[in-house]
Automatic annotation (TrEMBL):
All copies of domain ABC transporter, residue ranges: 13-245
Gene Ontology terms for molecular function: ATP binding; ATP hydrolysis activity
Keywords, comma-separated and alphabetical: ATP-binding, Nucleotide-binding, Transport
InterPro entries in the cross-refs: AAA+_ATPase, ABC_transporter-like_ATP-bd, ABC_transporter-like_CS, ABC_transporter_ATP-bind, P-loop_NTPase
Organism: Actinophytocola algeriensis
Key word Cytoplasm present: no
The keyword Kinase is assigned to this record: no
Top-rank taxon: Bacteria
CDD domains: ABC_NrtD_SsuB_transporters (cd03293)
Name of the protein in question: NitT/TauT family transport system ATP-binding protein
């Protein structure tokens, strides 16, 4: 591994002392409202690493992803992308266009920027559908798919342009518990294949432990990093891991951390 100053070439993204303050416009009577969403966040994510972010509602998890995406400007600090900054984003809702078929939904970005030849794009969409187990649904419309299938299309769409980093904001939050577990396993399978760097926001501590190499635990607003927990459970992992004492111990540790951070405020 070649070292450069501060980062290694194997760093996918590094945040250094990142702050985000939202300032809402002054209303007729009141003063401008200020919300400190991120406070001195420093984090280095290695290429191919799966990192989850957990923390209480409103602590700045989505803001962190938005800062990385460039959807919102950080107030201070630095962000470095070591291996390229092409990102794919998956939201809680799959946000598919109901009037386009599954294949055409995968091809949305292609139809806008024509980065690939149409043939290449079509082939990639086909390969994506087969990886997601959705070949038979290529010509169906989103409304004909279950919630889990729709979200799988959402993940496929984010992967279509081979992003260096996959950002996921509560991607399984709208699914029922069983589908959610299954989607976690599907995501792990996809990840085991090409080891994308993943930043995954979730409210579920077991989900974060099952999927991740490390779990970033954040404090209530303004979001700081309370601690980063290593999940050194062997891979490949499966749902049966959840019942092991090692798994339970890590879940408990994160829960205790979140509770103590909550009560400190
Ligand atoms: N565009 C905005 N303008 C003003 N304040 C904002 C804006 N976006 C977010 N905030 C505030 O910043 C704080 C952090 O929000 P954020 O959505 O990042 O939290 P979160 O941890 O993702 O929350 P949740 O878990 O509930 O989704 C919240 O207090 C929120 O109200």
């Amino acid at each position: 591994m070649t070292e450069t100053v501060g980062t290694t070439v194997d760093t996918a993204v590094e945040l250094r002392h990142v702050y985000k303050r939202y300032t809402t416009r002054r209303s007729k009577r009141g003063a401008a409202r200020v919300v400190d969403a991120l406070h001195d966040v420093s984090l280095s994510v290695a290429r191919g690493e799966f990192v989850s972010i957990v923390g209480p509602s409103g602590c700045g998890k989505s803001t962190l992803l938005k800062v990385l995406l460039g959807l919102t400007k950080r107030t201070a600090g630095e962000v470095d992308f070591g291996g390229g900054s092409r990102m794919g984003m998956v939201f809680q809702q799959p946000l598919l266009l109901p009037w386009r078929t599954v294949t055409k939904n995968l091809l949305i970005a292609q139809d806008i920027n024509h980065r690939l030849s149409d043939r290449e794009a079509r082939e990639r969409a086909e390969a994506m559908l087969s990886m997601l187990g959705l070949e038979e649904f290529a010509d169906r419309y989103p409304g004909e798919l279950s919630g889990g299938m729709q979200q799988r299309v959402g993940i496929g769409r984010a992967l279509m342009h081979d992003p260096e980093i996959l950002l996921m904001d509560e991607p399984f939050g709208a699914l029922d518990a069983m589908t959610r577990d299954q989607m976690g396993m599907d995501l792990l399978n996809i990840w085991e294949r090409d080891r994308k760097t993943v930043l995954f926001v979730t409210h579920s501590i077991p989900e974060s432990v099952l999927l991740s190499d490390r779990v970033v635990v954040m404090t209530p607003r303004p979001g700081r990093i309370a601690e980063v927990i290593d999940v050194d459970l062997p891979r490949p992992r499966g749902l049966e891991n959840i019942n092991t004492p090692e798994f339970g111990a890590i879940v408990r540790r994160i829960r205790v951390l979140l509770n103590s951070e909550n009560s400190a405020h």
